[in-house]
Amino acid sequence: MQDALALTARSLLREAQSTLADARGSTEPRRRRELARSAVSKARQVARQSDLTDEERAAARQVIGHGRMLATTVNASVKRQQGIERERDQPDIAI
After folding, report:
1. Whole-model pTM?
2. Which residues lie in Basic and acidic residues bias regions (predicted)?
């Protein structure tokens, strides 16, 4: 039973790593953010498993860190782009 759980966790870790790679490769900001958040969620599930090696836990923590950083960066970029578009749409008011 423990072997099956460890195998499932390892599979989920590979899936999280693959999802993070897809997030890095995506050009559309919202898709990147969704993929990064999904990778973080999967990696958190893996990190909770008690029957993994230290290397596997470290890999899960690495996915969590990189995924959070990517999601935060993309979120800031989207907000910045929205501000630029808003400024373009609204003419300046002369005082």
Report:
1. 0.77
2. 82-95
Q: What's the Cα-to-Cα distance from 6 to each of 9, 39, 80, rounded to whole Å?
A: 5, 18, 42
Is residue 48 within 8 A of residue 6, CB to CB? The reply is: no
Averaged pLDDT for residues 29-51: 93
Cβ-based neighbour number of residue 94 at 10 Å = 4
Report the interhelical angle of 54-89 vs 2-25 (nearest 10°).
30
Domain ranges of the chain: 2-89
Selection from 63, 65, 62 nearest residue 39 by Cα: 63
Torsion from C-alpha of 20, 22, 24, 27, nearest 10 degrees? -150
Q: Identify whether the C-beta of residue 51 lies closer than 8 Å to the C-beta of residue 1.
A: no
> Above 70 in pLDDT, residue 94?
no
Question: Residue 17: pLDDT above 70?
Answer: yes
pLDDT on residue 37: 95
